[in-house]
Amino acid sequence: MKKVAILVSGGGSNMLTLCDSMVGDHPARPVLVLSNDPAAKGLERASARGITAAAVDHRQFGNDRAAFEVELIKLLDAAEADIICLAGFMRVLTASFVERYTGRMLNIHPSLLPKYKGLNTHARAIEAGDAEAGCSVHIVTPELDDGPILGQARVKVEAGETTESLAAKVLVQEHRLYPAVLRRFAQDQRGVLELT
Ligand code: GAR
Predict the structure, then answer these.
(1) Where does the Formyl transferase N-terminal domain lie (predicted)?
(2) 49 is in an annotated binding site
(3) Is the Cβ–Cβ distance between 91 and 9 less than 8 Å?
(4) ipTM of the complex
(5) 176 C-alpha to center of ligand 1: Å?
(6) 142 CB less than 6 Å from ligand 1?
(7) Orientation of helix 13-21 relative to helix 163-186, angle to 10°
(8) Is 120 annotated as a binding residue?
(9) Alpha helices (H) in 32-162, listed in sequence order
(10) Which of 101, 126, 157 is the last residue of a domain?
(11) Staple partner for 145: which of 2, 117, 137, 149, CB 3.0–4.6 Å?
(12) Do 108 and 81 form a contact (C-beta atoms < 8 A)?
């Protein structure tokens, strides 16, 4: 059974769908939910499901990302995490942290990568007049929102679409895509999953 740690910064709706998917014959189980923000709602939600939840407050480390990450590493290693899922984790991680978990850290990003790395993805898709938007799950590499894509799901951008309406539609797809990709990944299945 693979052990999965999930890193969140906010509400953790993707984290919950991941946790809820890891039941029955699923090859993995959630062992830790970790946040950079002690007030993240996702922590309470994980605890309420009986999952160990912990925070390392990045603000206590100022600009010292390495010191912040040392504390993350202690908790991840104590939990013996095999797979790390970033799920709305909004801190940029250093190359040395990413390299420690090479090939076993996943991220979900709310755009059809390689388009719109970084923030404000939905506004940028609407602004560009894109006919479709979506989300991607990829393996984390030191470059931001880069790394091999494991799966994507698409939505249509309708006339009059707002960033809020588009974000809501994409989030529904995120909740389908991330659990599906994690299951395949935990089974060592590779290739790109295209959800329709
Ligand atoms: C999700 O839309 C996720 O794709 C995005 O943050 C949201 C978190 O929601 N992640 C990023 O933008 C990462 N760069 P959640 O806390 O409800 O899962």
Answers:
(1) 2-182
(2) no
(3) yes
(4) 0.98
(5) 14
(6) no
(7) 30
(8) no
(9) 41-48, 65-78, 95-100, 121-127
(10) 101
(11) 117
(12) no
Of the residues 143, 163, 171, which should be mutated to test ligand 1's pocket, given the most ligand atoms within 8 Å of the CB? 171
94's tokens: 């250093």
Which residue's CA is minimally distant from atom 16 of ligand 1? 12
Q: 114: cis peptide before it, omega within 30°? A: yes
Per-residue model confidence as pLDDT tens digits over 47-105: 999 999 999 999 999 999 999 999 999 999 999 999 999 999 999 999 999 999 999 99
Both tokens assigned to 193: 């999953």
Q: What is the CATH number of the domain that holds 177?
A: 3.40.50.170
Q: Which of 37, 68, 101 is the last residue of a domain?
A: 101
Question: Which amino acid type is present at position 108?
Answer: I
Q: Which domain holds residue 90?
A: 1-101
pTM, two decimal places: 0.97
91 annotated ligand binder: no
Residues serving a catalytic function are 109
Whether residues 97 and 1 share a domain: the answer is yes
Domain count, the chain: 2
Same domain, 116 and 195: yes
